[in-house]
């Protein structure tokens, strides 16, 4: 018997952190070692960062990963 499990969607508030710290997408990308396009894709929800990149972003802002990235459950 199979259960209907919720689909997990990773959401983020990266743009909020950037705005609070007055840093551009380009500046953040340089600081964490990726392209601006990667930051755009993460903020737009089109790309989930690797665990390593999520840690680099959280470390840059001196916060936990869970403060920037969270999981939203959606019933499928």
Structural account:
With 76 residues, the chain is an alpha+beta fold. The chain is 49% helix and 16% strand. The chain has a two-stranded antiparallel ribbon with strand order 1-2. The longest helix has 10 residues, at 51-60. The mean pLDDT is 92.
> Strands of the biggest beta sheet: in what spatial order?
1-2
The biggest sheet, with number of strands, parallel, antiparallel or mixed sense and barrel status, is: 2 strands, antiparallel
Would you identify the regions where 5 or more consecutive residues have pLDDT less than 50? none
Oligomer: single chain
Report mean pLDDT, rounded to a whole number: 92
Shape: elongated
Number of helices: 5
**Termini separation (Å)?**
17 Å
In total, the number of strands is 2
The whole-angstrom Rg is: 14 Å
The secondary-structure class comes to alpha+beta
Q: What is the H/E order?
A: EHHHHHE
Task: Estimate the helix proportion, in percent.
Answer: 40-55%
Strand residues, percent: 15-25%
Summarize the structure.
The protein has 76 residues and is an alpha+beta fold.
Please describe the topology of this protein.
Blueprint: E1 7-12, H1 14-20, H2 25-32, H3 36-43, H4 51-60, H5 65-68, E2 69-74
Antiparallel strand pairs: 1-2
Describe the structure using short key phrases:
49% helix; 16% strand; alpha+beta; two-stranded antiparallel sheet; elongated; 2 strands; 76 residues
């Amino acid at each position: 018997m199979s259960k209907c499990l919720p689909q997990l969607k990773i959401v983020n508030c990266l743009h909020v952190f950037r705005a609070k710290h007055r840093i551009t997408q380009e500046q953040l990308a340089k600081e964490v070692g990726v392209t601006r396009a990667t930051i755009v894709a993460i903020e737009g929800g089109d790309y989930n960062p690797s665990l390593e990149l999520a840690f680099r972003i959280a470390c840059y802002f001196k916060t936990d990963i869970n403060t920037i990235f969270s999981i939203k459950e959606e019933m499928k």
